[in-house]
Design a protein that fits this description.
Elements: H1 3-20, H2 34-103, H3 107-154
Length: 158
């Protein structure tokens, strides 16, 4: 490498270093009054307290949503299982009726079987409707309980 090339490289390095160097200023020794310092410290403490309260409220809200979701899932599962059981019972009853109807020896026996089957089905369906109504009410009450307690706790008036 020649002297000219070495000088060019040195100048390039110096130019790069000069472009990216931060200016160096000496900070003036400024003294803030004690009142400003106290206000700044109080502001920082209030911000920390506010953040802690918000974080706590967010965690409580998350827990409330999780509890609500789990309760609703359990209730829906129980409701669906009972619905499947009711469906199975009703289908079996219909098959039994069809078998009995095919075995009837006379028209009057078939009419009697039909009347008996209709009465039983009405009683069964009425009972199932009451059961599902009670189950749905229980599910709604249990699902809303975590929400009600969380809202009550957050908006409690002293």
């Amino acid at each position: 490498m020649s002297d000219i090339e070495a000088a060019k490289e040195t100048m390039k390095k110096a130019a790069k270093a000069a472009k990216f160097e931060a200016p160096k200023f000496e900070a003036a020794a400024v003294q803030f009054p004690e009142m400003f310092r106290e206000m700044a410290e109080k502001g920082v403490e209030q911000a920390k307290d506010g953040y802690a309260r918000m974080r706590s409220a967010a965690e409580e809200a998350t827990d409330m949503v999780e509890d609500t979701y789990l309760t609703a899932t359990r209730g829906a599962t129980e409701f669906n299982l009972r619905a499947v059981e009711a469906l199975r019972s009703n289908v079996n009853s219909s098959f039994d009726y069809a078998r009995e109807l095919l075995a009837a020896k006379s028209f009057s026996e078939a009419m009697e079987l039909s009347a008996t089957h209709m009465r039983r089905q009405f009683e069964t369906l009425s009972g199932q409707a009451k059961e599902f109504s009670a189950l749905a009410q229980k599910m709604a009450t249990e699902t809303s309980a975590p929400i009600a307690s969380g809202v009550g706790k957050n908006f409690k008036i002293n």
